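W.,

You were right to be curious about this one. When I first looked at the sequence I had no strong expectations either way, so I just let the prediction run and decided to look at it fresh. Below is the sequence, 471 residues in total, followed by the output.
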Amino acid sequence: MDDTPACVDPLAEKHRVEFGDAYDLLNFVSEDEARRAKAFRNEILVEIASEIKFRNKRTKPVYRGISRGCELCGTGSWSCLFVNGKCNCRCFYCPAEQRVVGLPTTNTLTFPKVQDYVDYIGQFDFRGVSISGGEPLLTLDTTLKFITAVKRKFGDRTYLWIYTNGTLVDRDALARLRDAGINEIRFDIGATEYSLKKARLAVGLIDHVTVEIPAVPEDYDVLKGKLHEMSESGISFLNLHQLRLTPYNRYNLLDRNYTYLHGEHPTVLESELTALKLMRHAAEDRIPLALNYCSYVYKNRFQRAAARRRCGLLIRSPHEDVTENGYIRSLYVEGPADALDSLAESLSRSGHPAGSWRSAKEKGRFFFSSTGGHAMTLDNLRLGVAYYDSRLVQSISYRNPFKEIRLNRNRSIFAERTRASNDMEIPECQRAVFEALVFGEGEPVPIADMEGPLDQILRYETVEPDLQDYS
């Protein structure tokens, strides 16, 4: 009898633990469903190919443009401040409870003092700031203090926008937001049965008025009819999101018989198809409304990569690089001491500063940056790489290397690094492919041709392209 355990899907196991007794009630996509859905998605994308452009490695399809805020999000030059954690609506799709005001927070860092947040924006040279919640208008005075302080310090260099469900919006609140410096206001009209009344009120008072909603599959016909109404109302942009499942909203979503996709977090298959169908309708009817689909994989990949990259650039050593995906790359070769000495000499002769390499002869290793790889001959040496993750934290754990970042005299935050991979030696048969990827030497190798260790390395090096794989 064969006692070999069957292959276990790590994502499925992760989700089984995360969702507990609800997991067995979830309808995850079958192979046949995935194949049909992929064919349907491809059919839509082919039909609208001449009308849309893809951004961020084909994870974000765009029809007629996106806002400046979305551009800054895509480049990682943006900070989202959750000014409170309380909402006055109970949308079925909300991913979190949102019942406590709490402290203003971004990326797990709290900012009870406005000036500390302003200094944080300056430290990382953010060019965009969004104010979210909860519902930011529940704490309007606090919201205005942050907006005013950021605008006073950075002026037009910083683009400011705010998210709201619209229930507390009136002309006075809009005028105060405008005077404080808001450039754009985004309405989740899904919270108000898709009413555009409050969004129309903002047109003419705020420079850019956006509708930002999840693509709810059963509301497709309603949303389809709203596209013309948004355009005629002076709405600048429509941002469509993909529904995702969380431990908080799981029972609400279970009632709706959706099909789920495995990923870092489960997402709703029909939601993505609904967003693309709405994009197709806008293109077919030539509706003059800028519309984009903000897929979950776009947000998950690019926003996380940007956060890693910001921190990684602060805490990396001079001989290390930060990859496109935000991981710290530590390159090394192994060999005899005299060979390592000659590498240091060749780098010195070619003008590379001493800090751009590190010799650890006691370990038989020589560490160097990717730019140094161009100036050295690595033949007959073993080539390896390791990757490190990094994050910003409020206090030191003392378990990992860290660096203090002083925002001002009274406030510091810390960059902390952790191991993301083991040391990985590059097999001789794959060195040319690795060097093309990391050093930019030789012909680029198609991602599909990478296998073995390089397949693992690739996820640390690059942000994965394309919309989510349904299989």
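Here's what jumped out at me. The chain has 14 helices and 21 strands. And, maybe more interesting for your project: Confidence is low (pLDDT under 50) at residues 1-5.

Coffee later to discuss?

I.
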